[in-house]
Amino acid sequence: MIRRQREREVSHTKAPSVGELNEIVANIKLSKGSMLNATNFGSTESIPPGDIFFSVDQTALAMQKNAIVKDNNVTNLYPRPTMFPHMDSALLQRNKANANINHNSRRTSTTTSGSRMTMTSASSASRRSSSKLTSDDSKMSDARGRTSGSLKKFTANRKKKQSEAWFSCVRKGPCKTSKSPEKKRFDETSFIEKAFVVESLRQFWADKHQPDSFNGFTCHKHEAQILSQLVSHDSIPHILLKGPPGSGKKALALALIGEIFGDACWNKTHDLRYFQVQEQRAAAQVAISIASSAHHVEINVNSEPNAKYALMGLVKEISNTYAINPEVSEANFKPDYKVLILYEVDKAPENIQHLIKWIMDCYTDSCKLILCCEDDSDILETVKNSCKVLKVDAPVTHEIMEVLIQIARKEEFDLPMNFASKIAAKSKQNLRKAIMALEACKAHNYPFSDDQPIPFGWEEVLVELATEILNDPSPNKLFSVRGKFQKLLVDFVHPKLILLKLVELFLKGVEANSKRELYYWHAYYDKRLPTGTTALLKLEEFVAKFISTYRKSSGNSQYVQ
């Protein structure tokens, strides 16, 4: 009897459907994992399309039953319905049909006592579940009633959250939980406009400690006395100062206008001014860098290729401002005038010298000229005959030493006599080079040592470099910049002195509306410059930044990238 009963229980049935297999696999996954304890599913990215889609409702997940695996046979019942409604209904109908077939059919085949009956875990689970669902049909109806609230809640939640990440993952694959906010683009120009910028630079010692009167000269006391007598007699002629570079010609010229006009002439500005080109019919202008005060103008007629347009424009402007009316001249009033200081006249082209002679002849009452040159042999005789020629000899070694010691005393540091003598001897009687070398040595190493290297001529290297960049601000200049920076750093020139001199030279060649930005970047890189040769990259970065802003402000789009 027991054997027949076991034979009736173990019989061959139809293979389970795809939905039934999915249900069984889902229950096994739920029993092995910890998904029942989770509040929700963050993502369904690991579930391939076509698999079972579980509800994110926590109450529905809490109603699941764990699968119990014993003797390689699945003995659990189906879990309570937690699928989508159409899947629950179809699955229930299939289970009822399978239960009726299994209950009414008779098994005709038997097995021998030595043979073992085998069946798949899926078939056993399907048959047992069908029998249980048929006998407890009323219990399933109650379960559906208890679950209906959860399904309605899930349906409403599904419609509400279709745009959320877990649903988009099911439809389109990888999900994005949230859309990252777009970063606001940093507006560098507006930031610099709102920043606090100190629009001034400290002076180099060679400019800071220039004598502001004839009494302050250590060198050239005789020449200073001659110029002082011209001022006292109220008869200032045109003056020609000749002498080697660095001898002090510029210092004498500035001291002269300081004696004439007072402290107002020391309020000097460097501007980029535009002058009309008169040879062309169409309106055209050229930009020329000039230094000026209320009473004088300084121009380098050699380095400025369009200096003649500046001279013609300035003379016209001066003549209109300082013109003398006839009735005023009859009253014996002394006319006012403005001084033009012209540098490197001997190296200027011949047409510039003819223009200088024309200014002397036509505007001598309203415009006085102070010409500076290295050698007057290349200057027209007519120009020299119209000027008071004054020779400025190069200072001797002990005079340079005295000037260096005075500067050290004003800057409050100790300068040994042997080190000052060493600088003066190697300066080749160039006073400005000696002062600039002293400042570079102080910045590099202090207190001084006897074997300390003394860099000479580093200012001229930077002047040449700045001129090249201003004339051709193309990115290709960065290749030549690196070599010159490397040489200066190897010669122990402090990076902050290099940066300061470059900014000083760049300020003379940019528009007025770009100066504030240049002051800002000087302060920015001055605080970030390392010492020694490691500053090379930062100096290159500053030059690249200047080239970019200079091209943008001046509209130099013709240069090749």
From TrEMBL:
Residues 107-133 have a biased composition (Low complexity). InterPro entries: DNA_pol3_clamp-load_cplx_C, DNA_Rep/Repair_Clamp_Loader, P-loop_NTPase. It holds the Pfam family RCF1-5-like_lid. One of its GO terms (molecular function) is DNA binding. Residues 97-157 are annotated as: Disordered. Residues 134-145 have a biased composition (Basic and acidic residues). This is Replication factor C C-terminal domain-containing protein. One of its GO terms (biological process) is DNA-templated DNA replication. One of its GO terms (cellular component) is nucleus.
